[in-house]
Amino acid sequence: RKEVEQDPGPFNVPEGATVAFNCTYSNSASQSFFWYRQDCRKEPKLLMSVYSSGNEDGRFTAQLNRASQYISLLIRDSKLSDSATYLCVVTLILTGGGNKLTFGTGTQLKVEL
Amino acid sequence: EAQVTQNPRYLITVTGKKLTVTCSQNMNHEYMSWYRQDPGLGLRQIYYSMNVEVTDKGDVPEGYKVSRKEKRNFPLILESPSPNQTSLYFCASSPLGRANEKLFFGSGTQLSVL
Prior knowledge:
A: mainly beta, five-stranded antiparallel sheet, B: globular
């Protein structure tokens, strides 16, 4: 089983739609969770951190379910500019210091007119 | 402007010809890291550095070297590149390398080894 798994998509949705992505992780000791956005062949950029209580930033809502070991990203009122690949990132704190970030392979979103 | 600068943006080389990809950050970050990104595999960590003169292997270090002689620079060295090192490479940094910190990425280097 992969450490972090995402549905690669693509998710093709009309403008204005609501779309949700899930990401599962295998290590229950994982500490921190993030969603990054990556436009084609460009650098990933942090979209939002994911907290146990859930968090919202405008049209974006992130949730963490530790019991089932998944995180989710909900995008409401999709815009054409939301078209990108969304990367799930999970961090594990290592014994002896340091931490290990594991990236999912990404979910591709295409928002269409 | 706070940024991570990678050079070159594109590089085509031949098998066995040593090359260096440079990475520099101007944010006084202690933590720096190199990743490669391949289709279907996501970003995989090559090496990371928690501070000057401190470097550690990531998940895929074979065939790569790094050095951290100054806080701002973290070059990636391929002593004898091979075609399986053709990939998109990203350098990244964060203030202290803590689990809850945002990573700042460079704009990437597309490497082709013929």
